[in-house]
Design brief:
The protein starts with a helix and ends with a helix. About 35% of the residues are buried. The protein has 12 helices and 2 strands. By secondary structure, it is mainly α.
Length: about 350
Amino acid sequence: MPGKIRQYFRDKKEDAQDYAGNNGVIGKFVAVVLLVYLLVAIVLGIYWSSEPEAFSVREHTRAVANEMQREPITGFATTVTMIRIAETLLDKPGGYLSNDIFPPGLWLDNQPNWEYGVLVQLRDLSRAMRKDISRSQSQSAEDPDLIIAEPQFHFDSGSWAIPSTEAEYRRGIAALKRYLNRLSSPEQANAQFFARADNLSNWLGDLETRLGSLSRTLGESVGKASVSEAVANVDADNPLNEETGGGDIKTDWTKIDDVFYEARGSSWALLHIFRAIEVDFRKVLQDKNAISSVKQVIIELEGAQGEMWSPVILNGSGFGVLANHSLTMAAYLSRANAAISDMRDLLSRG
């Protein structure tokens, strides 16, 4: 009996060796193909992770105006900048990555968070264009193309099936191009862009909350006391005995780079938007003495786009040995937000 068992396993071993010998070439071929695929995916992933360069809003506006053979009237710079931002989102190296389901896009998370930051600013500005900037008063009709563009950019950012996110965003871009064509056409007077102080101030108010939230989240990379808990501990009857602080809120270490790159994307989009606003709202900014505030915002956003020399986002303590990229980004955004607050104050004055 033991001999039969040994013979059984000996036969199985020989069968396995024969199978491996007959299929060894196929196995090696499959292994080589997988290895090449992984190497290509890694190289592509590194290339796709590079952030798009900033572009000159003035030069781009002149180029588009010359191509269309139109005068770059008020609103032209802001609209072409919105279109360029949206097209960059879709046409940068690797294309739009937030809805990828295959490597290397599936493995990347920095670029999708960068894309989300850009997308948030594009959504906010398209809503402001539809709600305020393209209308003369509260009873005015909304622009028909901006009615299409604004919800298209609010489409699900992660949809890869039918309809795809890219297809929906391109519909929004097409609607913006139609609006631009009507806005700049002397024969058509049904598209408007009202570069007024109240319209700009309304958008800046929404932007303040966006940047304030980003700055707070970036600052929580090293942990910050909870204001809500501190307020809950207030003792109105005996302030000397009350708890002065609250529990720390700290961003999870796996989310540090996500928040950072969302802020990078937001600041990249805002840098170009403010350069366009400086052109289209020049008269009202001069009248309100707010040009210096716009310049200050642009300077801070340029600083937020500084070259990244570290391959990873470092999270050193506030005054520690290692750098903390999140706190550096938070400092730039906080100063930009302070300049925006000054702008709103100047715009509100008579």
